[in-house]
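[Automated response] Your request has been received and processed.

Submitted sequence:
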Amino acid sequence: MKVDVRTIDGQTMSASAASESVGSTLRIAPAFVATAVDESTGVETTIEAHYSPTRGRYIITTIVNRAIADDFNEDRLKHAAPQAILQVAIPHCVALQLDDDPDAPWTTVADLTTAEGRIIPPWMAQAVVKRGMKGERWEVIEILYGTAALADLPPVKLIALELDVPERTASDWVQKARAAGWLVGMTSNVGRPAGAAAEPTIVDEAEGR
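Generated structure:
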């Protein structure tokens, strides 16, 4: 899925828009607008999401569905899939520094993402699982945990997938990262009932209708 991610004022999302600190190493954009086009159904979906510090994740506040073809799918127009768009958009809104130098440039997680869809490059994943790499490992754990938590995805599953380790190992590393002072203010809300989230505004639009 290709998603166009922009700031609230319409600028293309970049690392410079990530102005809010989360955890020890990450910065995020306070809010964003993301648009995805489904050519197969003739429907364009746009969402607006804002970061909620109390919930520790992005909350979708607006969903707009718009028909862009004469033979659009009416069911899809009425029933969007905003969570999928949110999950693809968030890596564009999370930034980090790849160097310990305070003046090092900030890079979005999306810029790190490989063609295969992995967030962490294979060389980095292979390096941090080695013995004696705890500091670097906890930093990567924070990147992955934060990215998952912000999208309301299971962090342990993502960590296990990205680092190619069993989920029990990923869970243990999360606990050890917390004990070492990482993941400050980060929690996972996976499993929370859908009704607990803010109710988004849904607007359906059909061109020419």
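Summary generated for your ticket: DSSP finds seven helices and nine strands in the chain. The first helix runs from residue 74 to 78.
If you did not submit this request, please reply to this message.
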